[in-house]
Amino acid sequence: MQLALIQRVVGILLVLFSSALLPPVAISLWYGDEAHVAFVGAYFFSLLCGLLLWLPVMKVQAELRIRDGFLVVVLFWTVLATVGAVPFLFSEFPEMSVTDAFFESMSGLTTTGATVIVGIDGIPESLRFYRQMLQWLGGMGIIVLAVAVMPMLGIGGMQLFRAETPGPIKDNKLTPRITETAKALWYIYLGLTILCAVAYWAAGMSPFDAVSHSFSTVAIGGFSTHDQSMGYFEQPAVHIVAMVFMLLAGMNFALHFLTIRSGNIRHYLRDTEVRVYLGLILVIGVLCLLVLMSFRSYPDLGSLVRHGLFQVISIGTTTGFTTSGFAWWPVFLPVLLVLLACVGGCAGSTAGGMKVIRAVLLYKQGHREFQRLVHPHALMSVKISGRPVQKDIIDAVWAFFSVYTACYLMLSLAVTATGLDLVSAFSAVASCINNLGPGLGEVAENYAAVSDAGKWLLAATMLLGRLELFTLLVLFTPTFWRG
User: Fold this and answer.
1) 3-state SS, residue 135
2) Rounded to an integer, what distance in angstroms lies between the CA atom of residue 51 and that of residue 58?
3) What is the DSSP string of 66-89?
4) Phi first, then psi: what are they for 269, rounded to 5°?
5) Strand, helix or coil at 465?
């Protein structure tokens, strides 16, 4: 383990993150609130911590190994969430404990969208903007941004990219060089954000709300600048814009890259994962609309279709925006949407959940086992888009599903032990491990009622889900630290 090199990398990344604390200062000065004092203090704190880590080892030159990459990713997300909590602690309103500040910061960076703040409309604009910006930085992964600039600093980034990039197939690259891959991802990410902000503004949002919500929409985050979330905006056009960009952000960014480069949308149509992703949302959406219609849950057909589809897309992509909420929906619908979030979006997207491609592989593997019962000697392979899938990938998907299920059950029981009722605890863990945000019961609107112990457990669950289990859990194995 190259501890000096790891220290150098984390120090550099902290220095880079400190610059992200400057835009809220400008927002604070523009709107005339007092929160700029908190952000200035947080900026110097982050900068000082980064320099103290970097200066003693600034001359260390080496290539990161895979084990080093895993440790850097986990350390950086933990350290970044800690530093990101400082503005919440320094701010006079709302007054937040260390636990609440860390929870809010971790929720933002992991794009979970679970909040402990009650009365969002009343907090300073700069703090509201900061919450949204945290999600935007975490959405594609600030590690990918670091990969784009690390070669200039003499640090190789492939190990970090493998540890951070979501999805079951880690080594795919859009371009021959890892630096160009990271840049391509960020160009697409930035382009979608700008388009989303312009569309929100054209639909009726103020410039502040348009930019802020574009951050959390493209990041699949779910934070809002208002307590009512998207329900604050009465314009149907705003909800339509949100649905379109949530669907786009939930798709594999590699497909966006290939489509833009070739000018051919057939890449979407040919992709098995995208077809299943859109089909699943469509089927669940129609089912929800039929149930809501039978129970007369909304006053008119237009409201029913708009709110119903919005909630299905928001929860299905693990964004977590709400218009009228879904926890009060009749019969099995709330649980159905939480289960839909467990599948989540596509691999290589900003969405959470297990990812659609894993669900597809699990289904195909199960279907193959049924066929083997009838034809025990037949040689059958699992195929995606007509191409056989390697056995080690199938094994990795089954391992992921097993660990995912075990972690969910154990964490749910642990959160229940902190005092939450079963429905609230199990939905809170499902929401956090899938980076969704809203749950059921006491956590349907916010997490203020959760105990401090429960909040720390759920914060760890967010990180576990954001790093897709193995990146974090491998650090707790003896094998990782040997040699």
Assistant:
1) helix
2) 9
3) HHHHHHHHHHHHHHHHHHHTHHHH
4) -70, -30
5) helix
Res 365 pLDDT > 50: yes
- The C-alpha atoms of residue 450 and residue 453 are separated, in whole angstroms, by 8
pTM of the model: 0.92
Nearest to 285, CA basis, from 237, 328, 236, 247: 247
Asked whether the beta carbons of 442 and 421 are under 8 A apart, the reply is yes
Comparing CA positions, the residue from 407, 403, 472, 397 lying closest to residue 433 is 407
The enclosing H or E element of 23 equals helix 23-31
pLDDT 10s digits, 301-337: 999 999 999 999 999 999 999 998 899 999 999 999 9
CA distance 480 to 475: 6
Cβ proximity of 178 and 158 under 8 Å: yes
Query: What is the rounded average pLDDT of the residues 373-398?
Result: 83
Structure tokens at 69: 């990459």
Residue 269 in tokens: 């149509």
- Scanning 317-446, the segments in alpha helix (DSSP H) are 333-343, 356-374, 391-417, 422-433
Count of CB atoms within 10 A of residue 204's CB? Answer: 15
H/E element, 31: helix 23-31
pLDDT digits over 103-123, tens only? 999 999 999 999 999 999 999
Token pair recorded at residue 310? 């919005």
Structure confidence at residue 258 (pLDDT): 85
Our measurement of the distance from residue 227's CA atom to the centroid of its chain's CA atoms, rounded to an integer in Å, reads: 20
Type of residue at 192: L
Name the nearest CA neighbour of 448 among 229, 209, 227, 135: 227
Contacts of 22 (CB under 8 A, 6+ apart): 39, 43
Give the model confidence (pLDDT) of 426-466 as tens digits. 999 999 999 999 999 999 999 999 999 999 999 999 999 99
